[in-house]
Amino acid sequence: MAQRLRSRRPVKLYEKLATDIEVTIRKGVFRPGDRIPSVRQTSQHHQLSITTVIRAYLLLESKGVVESRPQSGYFVRQLDAGSDGNAHELRASRPIAVSSEVDVSRLVLSTLRSIGTDEAVPLGSPYPDPNLFPSDKINRYAYGMSRKKEIWGVTDALPPGNPNLIRQIARRYLENGASIDPNEVIITIGATEAINLCLQAVGKPGDTVAVESPTFYAMLHAIERMGMRAIEIPTHAQEGMDLTVLADVLENQKIAACMVMPNFQNPLGFQITDQKKRELVDLLTQYDVPVIENAVYNELYFGDAHPRTLKSYDTQGLVLHCASFSKTLTAAHRIGWALPGRYREQVEKLKFLNTLTTSNLQQLAIAEYLQNDGYEHHLRRIRRLYAQQANLMRTMVNRFFPEGTRTSTPAGGYVLWVELPEKVDSMRLYQLALENGITIAPGNMFSASNAYSNFIRLNYSYAWSPEIERAVQTVAKLAAACAR
What is residue 188's predicted lDDT score, i.e. its pLDDT? Predict the structure, then answer.
């Protein structure tokens, strides 16, 4: 008996609350269709934090006991109900737009500087919480390597990169069910350099590039840097780029390249189906258009299996696959890579001409960590954390933001895309939030045509705390005031 008592897992507060509520429902105190007490009421009456109550309600919702109705509360589930459970989710994206030129860098730079403001709550940060990274271990490897004279030679750092790191990257793909040729890998200074090099390899100034809308601003930066134009393709919050529209564009215009994030796209967070990945590659192959695949979030999935890449469907060398460790392992050591397909030689040459090498010390430190320190264990931990915090952030936004607010449903990553009522100007909201010591990412940064003026992106990677909770509620109040 004593042994059984010692091994029994303590019941957490939110689990006990969920059980108590479920018992009252089973006993008929609440009937199907009845509204159960609000999060705030339950928090006050049970003297529990709002976060604890939300977790309990999410647990009940996952068990099918209750359902959430936006701006109304939680209701006892009716199994035969025909209500729309996705009413709070985003609709399809805006219509297609073509930019005469791309210039979002100044807005992004200003916003990123504000994120570094002392004491600011980083809801607008594009970076994951650095406290989640095994920085001490990697730094110890780097320090140990720095004491070895042989690492100071340039040869191993020249393109394509350090052979040991390349081997570790190839092994990682194999572990995730994909077989790549290690001879195709080119090490870069983060995924940003990989994307820039790949775009430079396939296009020239004045060319037009097809992008998702909304799209991650690093893609727009690359286009801007090259003096190209962006053509924005409508992108569904769950299904990805509209391939019908893309096909029409390819048929009627000269497109130099397509740039996409098929897995856990920033800012929408979707993962497109394997069938659609195949269809996208087939469509672009039909028109002989290269596609730059940004895969920086691929390891941060919430499901049971690693997502497939566009690269796995490429038979003609048209997919230029780009990734990095900056979002999963360390942002301080900027190590990325490209698998450029038929453009490999050109990308390798451009890497040499642009930056010569990537730090050999940093490459070796990352390689040692991958080889010795349980990268997969680290990833499983942060995946679970992000999935939990995605639910918390989404629930808080749907609970407290003004009526008419809609959110994405991330399948991975650590950002939430929020559509606010049309009256809300996200730049005005950004300024008001900053005055209150909170950063958010205004939607204008995710389009070359200023298409998302009533959208914001929120970061949920940071440890959930009363400070984060208060910040979300403050932004909600500010948004409500802007919506009047």
Answer: 97
Quick one: which of 124, 117, 22 has its CA closest to 455? 124
pLDDT of residue 4: 37
How far does Cα 204 stand from its chain's mean position?
A: 29
pTM of the model: 0.81
- CB count within 10 Å of CB 378 equals 18
**Burial tier of 47 (Cβ tally within 10 Å: 0-12, 13-18, 19+):** exposed
Closest CA to 261 of 214, 196, 312: 214
Q: How far apart are CA 76 and CA 58, in angstroms?
A: 13
Rounded CA gap, 195 and 202, in Å?
11
What CA–CA distances, in Å, run from 210 to 1, 223, 308, 322, 334?
Answer: 66, 10, 22, 17, 27
pLDDT for 160: 96
Q: Which helix (H) or strand (E) holds 374?
A: none
Whether 267 contacts 216, CB under 8 Å: yes
* CATH among 3.30.450.20, 3.40.50.300, 3.40.50.720, 1.10.10.10 for 8-76: 1.10.10.10
Tracing tokens 């939300």 back to the chain, one arrives at: 54
> Please, which residues have CB within 8 angstroms of residue 185's CB and are 6 or more apart in sequence?
160, 161, 166, 169, 170, 337, 338, 339
pLDDT at 3: 38
Mean pLDDT by 10 residues, the chain (484 residues): 44 84 74 84 80 84 80 72 51 62 66 67 92 92 77 71 93 89 96 97 96 94 92 93 96 97 97 97 98 98 95 97 96 93 98 92 93 92 97 96 96 98 94 92 89 95 95 98 94
Please state, in angstroms and rounded to a whole number, the distance separating the CA atoms of residues 185 and 166: 7
Record: fold of 134-375: Aspartate Aminotransferase; domain 2 (3.40.640)
Phi, psi of 361 (to 5 degrees): -60, -45
Dist. CA 179–CA 173, nearest whole Å: 6
Instruction: Kindly list the domain boundaries of the chain, sorted by start residue.
Output: 8-76, 134-375, 380-483
- For the structural domain made of 380-483, what CATH number should be given? 3.90.1150.10
